[in-house]
Amino acid sequence: MAQSLGYPDDWLVDGSKTKVILREAAEGIVPESIIRRPKAGFGAPYRGWLRHDLAAMWSDLTSESATVQRGWFDYRSLQKARERSQSGKEDLYLLQWAVLTLELWAREFLDKNPSSP
Questions:
Q1: DSSP state of 89
Q2: Could you tell me where the DSSP H helices lie in 13-109?
Q3: CA angle 87, 47, 112 (to 5 degrees)
Q4: Are strands 7-8 and 3-4 parallel, antiparallel or unpaired?
Q5: Predicted confidence band at 1 (pLDDT cuts at 50, 70, 90)?
Q6: For 75-108, what is each residue's pLDDT tens digit?
Q7: Alpha-carbon torsion 18, 21, 24, 29, what sign?
Q8: Mean pLDDT, residues 9-22 taken together
Q9: Please, how many CA atoms are within 13 Å of residue 95, restricted to the half-sphere of its CB?
Q10: What is the dihedral of CA 60, 61, 67, 72, to 10 degrees?
Q11: Which of 50, 105, 53 lies closest to 78 in space, CA to CA?
Q12: Residue 84 half-sphere exposure, CB side, CA atoms within 13 Å?
């Protein structure tokens, strides 16, 4: 019998059922509807973060001076995208998330002097 992570395969997969040992251990503790539900992905709550928690960071990282200095994006277009998302006219939060993470990456890996801590 092949082993994976030290457990017999039939503890992990039984036909089309996965995580057999975990599902059996949860019986009687976790509702059956949760144990037997289909696999679901996990999405980061970036909409809420951008709308509330990261609003100040967005303003800082996409300020007119920062945007012009970086030269990658048009300042007015970024602000329009932000306004359209904040007003509920369009869901452009994934675009904002990409811009925010790209700017953070650039600051970390392009702007810092590699010889400084």
A1: S
A2: 20-26, 32-35, 46-48, 55-61, 64-70, 75-86, 93-106
A3: 110
A4: antiparallel
A5: very low
A6: 999 999 999 999 999 999 999 999 999 999 999 9
A7: negative
A8: 68
A9: 14
A10: -170
A11: 50
A12: 14
Token representation of residue 115? 């010889």
β-partners of residue 4 are 7
Cβ-count burial 103-116 (b if 16+ within 10 Å, e if not):
beeeeeeeeeeeee
| This prediction's pTM | 0.63
Q: How far is the C-alpha of 66 from the C-alpha of 70, rounded, in Å?
A: 6
Per-residue pLDDT reduced to its tens digit, 20-51: 788 888 999 999 998 888 877 888 899 999 99
Say whether 27 sits in a helix, a strand or coil.
strand
Q: Indicate the angle between helix axes 75-86 and 93-106, nearest 10 degrees.
A: 140
